[in-house]
Design brief:
The chain has 123 residues and is an all-alpha fold. It has seven helices and no strands. Residues 18-98 form the RWP-RK domain.
């Protein structure tokens, strides 16, 4: 029992000698109300966080707290269209070729259908 007290006393003494710990910032410090967040819905969360002077995770945490889904979505298709290389007429025709072939019925397809009907009706 005496050894337990001594070790506890040593721990407390060591704790007094060390520098005081910096206090952790409270997560509730930045409690943005939904009406404040609504003013930034037209922009990405990253920009909203920058204007609010907080990290993006703080904005996300506030949205989660109030069950808000951030409505802004970057238009990915716009970015893809900018980076896409325009194709020549032959390139476009080649890209459309498989779809055109699938949509058209050929003689071979008709014969296959007839054979399948015959097999199905005889079985």
């Amino acid at each position: 029992m005496a050894t337990a007290r001594r070790t506890a006393t040593k721990r407390m003494a060591r704790g007094l000698q060390t520098a005081p710990k910096t206090l952790r910032k409270s997560r509730r410090k930045y409690d943005f109300k939904p009406n404040l967040l609504e003013q930034y819905f037209h922009m990405p969360q990253k920009e909203a966080a920058l204007l609010l002077g907080v990290a993006v995770i703080t904005v996300k945490r506030n949205c989660k707290r109030y069950k808000i889904e951030w409505p802004y979505r970057a238009n990915k298709y716009k970015y893809k269209a900018r980076n896409q290389v325009p194709l020549s007429e032959k390139g476009l025709a080649f890209m459309k070729l498989p779809l055109d072939c699938i949509n058209e019925e050929t003689e071979g397809d008709i014969q296959t259908e007839v054979l399948l009907d015959l097999i199905g009706s005889s079985g």
